[in-house]
Protein 1
Amino acid sequence: MKFNIFSSAGFARRGELDFSRGKVQTPAFMPVGTNGTVKALEVDNIKQTGSEIILGNTYHLMLRPGDELIQSLGGLHKFSNWDKPILTDSGGFQVWSLGDLAKITEEGISFQSPYDGKKCFMSPEDSMRIQANLGSDIVMVLDECTPYPSEHQAAKKSMELSLRWAQRSRDAHKSNSALFGIVQGGMHEDLRLQSLEGLEKIGFDGMAIGGLSVGEPKEDKTRILQYLAKHLPAEKPHYLMGVGKPEDIVEAVFYGVDMFDCVLPTRNARNGQLITSYGVLNIRNAPSKAKDEPIDSSCKCKVCQNYSQAYLNHLDKTNEMLGSILNSFHNIYYYQNLMQEIRLSIETDSFAKFIKDFYNMRHLDVPKHLI
């Protein structure tokens, strides 16, 4: 992986990730393909939205159908028919989310499969092996996601464990894939800096920010992003994990983030929540039932060009699969169009104007820290 920065506006950067399987324009949004598929979308549909990279879930693919089976079938790219770059997470967040079903020790994580109750174990070395079997282009270190809230001492203990695991992940990583470290430390700025400095000493191809969007107040998330912006290595890509509301993406780009992923656009789509230039439209609400208008009149996607709100409301009410397909396509297209507009605004030195217009379209005040 090569990372090139073409232009900037403050901390915000317009760049490009260059892989053997293709180039990814940044800032970039990665649709989440948990089980080797972005829900409700076939590969050609994903490409039509403008997506250049997707995310695969190490934890779920390890359990079903199994990483060794996927490797025997040619790797995740061939298995899923996706020929562009793939990032795989390490599985740490998913295991953390199991709560009492998982036990974390120095050696790794013991847990029960939620599918069949089978006892499982994952170490940093296991995570690297599994991701190598999947054949991903970007591999994430195994880390412990620090819960919110966490007192300083608990967050410090968790962060230091993640650093030791990061070193073990680095040592076990043998493939040509890019390897990203993950900054932890909870809501404590000094711990975030210690984590970042430790990861820099170990040496990684990119730097991810973990442990945000885990229930903390928005003010704390903003504070941590503000603090890290001036410390993150300028020559490496910055990835904010699991944060995906459009407003959160715009704010994070302002603070130098280059990569995003989130299940929000596809999950919301399956629940009738459509993301537009003006905010969120609930297609299930009564006003859409007889409205012969598109979801978003300014959107150029094939859904907005060909289908009315009334038809999408009908598909949702009758539980037709096509409803989830069309809704998901629109939401992912919206995100990719948003990223394209952000990139263009940075290129043309108009990012400040973009931010103002973005919030005005939603009838929201521009946050003072973005002015």
Protein 2
Amino acid sequence: MLGLHPEEVHDDWRQQLTAIKQVIDQQLAADKPQLVAIGEVGLDYYWSREYEQAQLQAFEEQVRWSVETQLPLMLHCRKAQNEMVAILKRYSRQLPGGVFHCFTGNEQEALQLLEFPRFVLGIGGVSTFKKSHLPEVLPAVVPLDRIVLETDAPYMAPVPMRGKRNESAYIPYVITRLAEAYGVSEETICMHTNSNAARVLHC
């Protein structure tokens, strides 16, 4: 994946995007391009809104890259879902799809994101946390064909590994929790999420 993370959007964001786009173009011109997505990109107003307008412009530019290249988007969003959705709606018919990374929202927020039919929600270690409402939210409104598994490593390791450096080896804890929440087998969770990931990433 290649993209400018919203927390890295500073005064030089235009130069950064120019450099990243050059690498993307080089990758796509190669005999066997290794690039699978544009990301992790999006909006993040959690810490500060100092670069709010720059983030909006940088994000929209990278959304246009997704349309141009037909590479899926890996989307990061904190405290900015309405703004993110407003931009995505402008391109919804042309976008190839992607992942709403690290979804931790409520039913209303989930339904808003599910309006983008080629996108899925990324579910990770937060789903196992004691105070997480995801085990109730997900089976209530999110079909199994609209989720993928992720780690967000090195952050947010699942219970019982919480506090440790997260890694892919801990994904089975997420699978177990989702199987309990949806009332299906762990094999069913694996089957759906593997298929969803392959569909979104075109592999």
Protein 3
Amino acid sequence: MKTSGWMIVWILIAATLTTPAVAQDDDQAAELAKKLANPIASLISVPLQYNYDEYGGVNEDASVSRLNIQPVIPFSMNEDWNMITRTIMPLVDQNDFPAGAMNESGLGDITASQFFSPKTPAAGGWIWGAGPVELLPTASDEMLGGRKWGLGPTAVALKQVGPWTIGGLANHIWSVDGDDDRADINATFLQPFVSYITKTKTTIGLNTESTYDWENDQWSVPVNATVAQLFKIGPQIMQLALTARYWAESPDDGPEGWGGRVQLTFLFPK
């Protein structure tokens, strides 16, 4: 990781170690930590997720920084169902690519998902949700996005037993319109996850965020190990998460080796 990336990580690590714990009832803090482990919990949150990766192959020494703004907003549809919206708005900074046109910064393509989820867990305690996912060609530069509209299904299922959460999220996106000169999109996303919440409301998690590109028969498989902590500054409750990422599989000229993530989530419990 380049110097600027390390500086951001260490500054946020220091903030985690010096910030006081959540000053509220212990049961409430435990419930918030549990909801954060559930992608479709009825909790308004705004994660700011900074990712850093370095590339290999012909793109040796290139790097990509990506700040994902990811608001999660639940809506109560009736006494039985919620709709949870999850939106990913990426701000991308690409540097040191041999092809100079790749070295751009700006907004990438937005991904929006809507999960329809029962308010009461199903038999066996399973929590689930399903709905559509949309890919919007919002990139501010053609090098930062696919110039395609995309659409497909998405679903998530998980179970929470004591301090443990285990489950998975998946979607598939096909391009349905857009620039005919750009490659079609036909991609499956798989995110199995497991996490454990300690008595101090520290969450330890492991997941992959794997994508299979059906057009090019290529997997991208980053494995993420995360430690996250609830804390509070004034009235604002937040969670800071630090992630080490290893690229187990990626395209020849794609990200490789180790990367990192720092995520600050603002919570707005009802």
